[in-house]
Amino acid sequence: MTIPDVDRAARPATDPNPSPAVLTVPTDSATGPARQPAREPGGFTPEAARRDIPVLHRTVNGHPLVWLDNGATTQKPRQVIEALTGFYGAANSNIHRGAHTMAREATEAYEAGRSAVARFLGAPSPDDIVFVRGTTEAINLVAQSWGRHHLGPGDDILVPVLEHHSNIVPWQLIAKETRARVVPVPLRPDGQVDLDAYADLLSMRTRLVAVSQASNVLGTVPPVGEMTALAHRYGAKVLVDGAQAVAHFPVDVQALDADFYVFSGHKLFAPTGIGALYAKPEILREMAPWQGGGNMIESVDFTRTTYAPVPHRLEAGTGHIAGVVGLLAALNWLTSFDRNAIAAYETSLMAYAQQALAAVPGLDLLGTAPDRIAVLTFTLAGHDPAAIADWLDRDGIAIRAGHHCAQPALAHYGLESAARASLALYNTSEEVDQLVASLRRLQQAA
């Protein structure tokens, strides 16, 4: 006899417009500025964004914090912090697992988050969205669930040299298992993907192209739509890593015609440990479970198990429920601003930063692709990147130093490590000036 899954028994149909009360629980932040009055949606200034971010109002080593490590993780607005506190303080419950009030509220909040992600990405349906821990898990899920069944000996997986390790290593692992091969797509000197080489590498052997929509180390924004259209001519699927893109400009997965799209919440002003995978519905329906357990089944006995429909089939166990609540709050916060105004502001700020940094003696910026996000990776003659980061930290300026989990991209420039300042909507030209002044003092102190 089959045993019905009590985990699934209370799961409601997906509501595209749920309005869970749990998300409106007000909680005062313990740190940072006083609560600000509600803003009218649509406007944007960096000052308005900064008012909402408590951590930007602290000091580090006696200096006001200058957070220029947004490529690693973004800071969280009070709306996200309050949503997490409100959930744990007033509505904590597991989801899809009970008929009581708090279980219903938690489930509604979770599925509201799914609907919000679908709207944010321009996906046709919330059912096209799978919650994961982040970009890395999403890519591994696709590699193991889709790749295991669609890759074989002699198949090619094309991966540009600019990719993050998370979009390289999972394909190497599944390629070794299936006897496929990972083929690097070279870069041009300015950090753009070499489209001529890409076109030459495409063939009927190509099963997948894995490409980031924005590079975490060079800032390059490849022409993903064009690359996708070329890949589809050969019947190949395309996975787009949106980890670095989603915080900087609007995304429309249908316009891109992406087969898979992945991103992490923590690079989008949301909590760590939550992210999402979008896949075209006809592809998602064919993907076998990667992990087994509760929540992803319809019924289980020792002779036969039947699985839940997607997306739940790919969400084994208890997910990061509070993370989804925080992601929903982050999406609501970000989309309360004019996204095009944010993109224009960041482009202007990046141009200012490029010009200012170019005046620092011995500083060399990597990558000059014309289409890019505000990522400024550099070397400084006579100084190790880690020493640069340590010096800046003394002035309260946080940057990243190392290989940035993108060693092939750095090797393209003959480097093993570099320093990186990455900007977000709440950064200002005054902070850029502080960065430049500190780097100048470092050069003078040498």
Write the layout of secondary structure elements.
Elements: E1 3-4, H1 6-9, H2 46-51, E2 59-60, E3 63-64, E4 66-67, H3 78-90, H4 101-121, E5 129-132, H5 135-150, E6 156-160, H6 169-178, E7 181-185, H7 195-201, E8 206-212, H8 224-233, E9 237-241, H9 253-256, E10 260-264, E11 275-279, H10 281-284, E12 297-300, E13 305-307, H11 321-335, H12 339-358, E14 363-365, E15 375-380, H13 385-394, E16 397-398, E17 400-402, H14 407-411, E18 418-422, H15 429-445
Parallel strand pairs: 4-16, 6-7, 6-8, 8-9, 9-10
Antiparallel strand pairs: 1-12, 2-3, 5-11, 10-11, 12-13, 14-15, 15-18, 17-18
Helix pairs in contact: 3-11, 4-11, 5-6, 12-15
Strand ordering within the main sheet: 5-11-10-9-8-6-7
Low-confidence parts:
1-40
Helix/strand class: alpha/beta
Gap from first CA to last CA: 77 Å
Give the radius of gyration. 23 Å
Q: Mean pLDDT, as a whole number?
A: 91
Number of strands: 18
